[in-house]
Specification:
This protein is α/β, with parallel strands linked by helices. It has helices at 12-19, 43-58, 73-78, 96-103, 116-122, 150-155, 187-190, 195-209; strands at residues 2-4, 25-28, 66-70, 86-89, 108-113, 129-132, 163-165.
Length: 221
């Protein structure tokens, strides 16, 4: 999963176009960085960036990644017929039960989690996957404490819901997530000197050491 935060790079659409065929999911996440990272995504910014990504999708042949928006259930609903596949929610965003009622049964709903309690609570929610982290040190969000020990229970598959580890994931440490074969990555790709090489290296690390995924598989299965 590419966590597409345009603020992370100078030419975001160009970077996205480079890695388009190398990722399975794009989470569209226009967000302030640092101390303002906890602020909600604005509806206007989310809508406009989602439209740009949809324009890119329409201009490219072949299969495309799943497209999710961050935070904004209203934008996910407004653009569902245009090709947005769902929404990713934080712990303090719209409750997943409300999002499911608004969006219906088909769109995907993801939820950010940061500890085992939140993971267990999510098992009773109408969500399709979890983000979990930060698993490594990250500068994208302020005040986030990473804990590599979470890899032990992630590796054992203790969550009943598919998990995307997130936070500080780079080509050099992605192999540590081999039991899942999944990762959600933002700066590790978008701020790399060569985003395509970084994305391919992470994919290769996950596929080489874990069960991996191919373009014909649903990344949530």
């Amino acid at each position: 999963m590419l966590v597409f935060t345009p603020e992370l790079c100078e030419l975001p659409i160009e970077a996205l176009e480079q890695v388009w065929a190398s990722v399975d999911v794009v989470q569209i996440r226009p967000k302030a960085l640092g101390d303002r990272s906890s602020e909600p995504t604005s509806a206007r910014s989310c809508y406009e960036w989602a439209q740009r990504v949809l324009d890119l999708a329409q201009g490219r042949p072949g299969p495309r990644p799943l497209l999710l928006v961050n935070d904004r259930v209203d934008v996910a609903q407004a653009l569902a017929q245009e090709g947005i596949d769902g929404v990713h929610l934080g712990q303090h965003d719209t409750p997943s039960s409300v999002a499911r009622e608004v969006l219906g049964s088909e769109p995907l709903i993801g939820l950010s989690t940061h500890n085992y309690r939140e993971v267990r609570e999510a098992e009773g929610m109408p969500v399709d996957y979890l983000g979990f982290g930060a698993v490594f040190p990250t500068t994208t969000k302020s005040g986030v404490v990473h804990n590599q020990s979470v890899n032990s229970w992630i590796a054992q598959g203790r969550s009943k819901i598919p998990v995307f580890p997130i936070g500080g994931i780079q080509p050099g440490n992605a192999w540590l997530l081999r039991p899942l074969g999944r990762a959600a990555v933002g700066s590790g790709i978008l701020q790399a000197p060569n985003p395509l090489e970084a994305a391919q290296a992470i994919v290769q690390a996950l596929q080489r050491h874990g069960r991996g995924m191919n373009r014909d598989m649903n990344p949530l299965h």
